[in-house]
Each structure stands twice: as C-alpha cells, then as structure tokens.
Amino acid sequence: MTAPDSRVPFRRPLQLSLYLLAIMTFSFLMHLRSWFPTARQRLPSPNATDRSPTTPPTTPPATERGMWTVNSIGRLGNQMGEYATLYALAKMNGHQAYILPQMHQQLAPLFRITLPVLSSDVVRRVPWRNYGLHDWMSEEYRHIKGKYVRLTGYPCSWTFYHHLRQEILQEFSFHDHVKEEANRYLAGLRGQRQNVTYVGVHVRRGDYVRVMPQVWKGVVADKAYLEKAMGYFRAKYQEPVFVVTSNGMEWCRENIDASRGDVYFSGDGKESSPGRDFALLAHCNHTIMTIGTFGIWVGYLVGGETVYLANYTLPDSPFLRVFKPEAAFLPEWIGIDADLSPLRGGT
After folding, report:
1. Rounded distance, CA 192 to CA 110, Å?
2. Largest alpha-carbon pair distance within the chain?
3. pLDDT tens for each residue of 302-327
4. pTM for the complete prediction?
C-alpha cells in the first residue's frame, strides 16, 4: 500500500493562483500598450527633418504648441520676408515655427537661421490650415486660430517683425566664410582712400522692365534717379565708393557714370544664385535701392542710410492694392520720387 501524494491537496489552489497571475499580467500589458502607442500609431514627429548635408538636427519643442509654417515662394528677398513674418507671427500667437525644406535650401547657405526644418513627408501628412496674409501687419494677425497653420502670400513688411529687429538681424547673420569673402572684396576697392564709405547700389531690372509699365502702371529706376541718389552720398561723404549689383548689368554700365573712379560694377547678375551680390551689398555702410524685396532687405540689414525710389506708380495703379509703401520702407529712409512722365506721355 503506497502513501498518499502529499502534493495533491495543493495542486488546485496553485493552478488557480497561476491563472489569476496570468490575467493580471495580460491586463497590465494592455494598459502599457494604451499608454505608449506603437510606431504605426504615432503621429509624425514635428521635428522630422530631411537629413541632407545642409539640414541641421533640431530639438523638438512641446507638441502642444503645434506646428506653424509658411509657403516657400519667390526669390531670395521674398523668402527672407516669409521667414521673418513666420518667425514673428508664430511667436506672437504662441506657436512653434518650422520652415519647409525649400526655404532652408534657399537661406541656409547664406545665413545662420535657427528655425527647425520639416521633412517633406511631414509636410504632406499634416492637416494644414492655410491662412492668407497681405503685405502689412493687421490686428487680426495677433489672434490667428489653429494648431497647424501654413501662412501664405508674399509678406515682406517691417510692420510684421520690426519689434523683433535684433532677433531678425541675428537670424540673418551671415556665415563666417560669406562675411570674409565680401569684406575681402570690399577691401580690394579701397585703394589709397583713407576715409572710404561703401554704398551698395542695387538696380532691379529683369522682368520688372516689362511688368511695371504693362501690368502695374509703374516705372523702374532710370538714369536720373541713380544720379540723384549717388549725388546725395557724394555730397555728404568724403570718399564714397559705389558697389553696383543688378540683374541688368549691361544697362548699368551704359547709364551709370563711372568717370569719377568711385563706381565699381561688382555683381554677377545671376538671378539663380543671388547670394554673392546680396552679401556684398549687405556689408556696405549705406544703401541705394530701386524697387523690389531684394533691395529692401539689403537696406534693413545694413542699417545705415537707405535711399529708395518713391512714388513709382500712377495713383490708380492696381499695385497699390497689394503694396503699401509706408509698410515697406522704414520712416527714416530717404525717398526720391520717380519720373512718371513716360507713363503719362504714353512712351
């Protein structure tokens, strides 16, 4: 006769305990799954970036602040206006600003910009709310609603961002190699001058020669305007040096008097790569501009005296519906009226 198995009375309670432990473990794991979603379930990181050599890694802010961006359209001056406007309005409305890859490609080779870059994949997946801007600050822009906002338009007005001037100037500070190249070139123009004053001259030609009279009832700068503007600096400064850049250099050589030896035709006129011309002008002491956002930004960054072409459209020009001169040119800048007689005379 064998002795009874002493483990039999304990087998059923042990099985029951293991069963309850398994249920509790499964329940705990399900809770963990709900707290930490899988990669497939997660939203794209707002910090996802295109890992190109020119795209720096960034630190993501709190996602509760959402993502604001701006369209990347136009050439260098437009891109700078869009960037600065996004920077200011996103901060004003308490949201984190991000730029598109195209804008980074335009601005990063020149400037030490700091706004993080969205990857193309994130741009496609975010449910953006497009918000159109006109080209001057309005009160409603202080109260823009939306967590994922994409600003649209061609904003380029100091009224958006002038209260943050030092921050904007820091964003558009040049890389060291760009500064060194520009300063080296300007130093080569000094010659024997002891009290040189560099005046950057930007002459916008190109498509504006046709578009201004035919579309906007306006004019571009003529020979007389440039003579007046340069005469202002010649009368005020002992040894001015005029550094001329343009997308119409042939016209400049034919119409700007360089007989005094103080004019240097320095720009290469390449609209596809305007960075060198912009850097040269921005490292001068003062600015003569004609029309366009390129010249406006040169004057804003230089910070010296800026002379600009004023009243260059007829009073009934449709251009004045989308452009306010008082919002484009700083109050301390010096305007010289354009000659509108070619428009009035029909020539």
Report:
1. 31
2. 132
3. 999 999 999 999 999 999 999 999 99
4. 0.82
**CA dist 203 to 30, 170, 186, 325, 335, Å?**
68, 26, 19, 18, 15
Compute the average pLDDT of residues 109-128.
97
DSSP string, 219-263: ----HHHHHHHHHHHHHH-SEEEEEEEES-HHHHHHHS--TTS-E
Token pair in block for residue 38: 């899988």
Residues 290-305, buried b or exposed e (16+ Cβ, 10 A)?
bbbbbbbbbbbbbeeb
Type of residue numbered 122: V
CB atoms inside a 10 Å sphere around CB 20: 10
Helix, strand, coil shares, percent, the chain, to 5:
45, 15, 40
pLDDT tens for each residue of 125-139: 999 999 999 999 999
Assigned token pair, 195: 């009290």
- SS3 category, 214: helix
Residues in the chain: 347
Query: Do 156 and 78 form a contact (C-beta atoms < 8 A)?
Result: yes
Pairing of the two strands 239-246 and 286-288:
unpaired
Spatial separation of the C-alpha atoms in residues 306 and 304, rounded to whole Å: 6
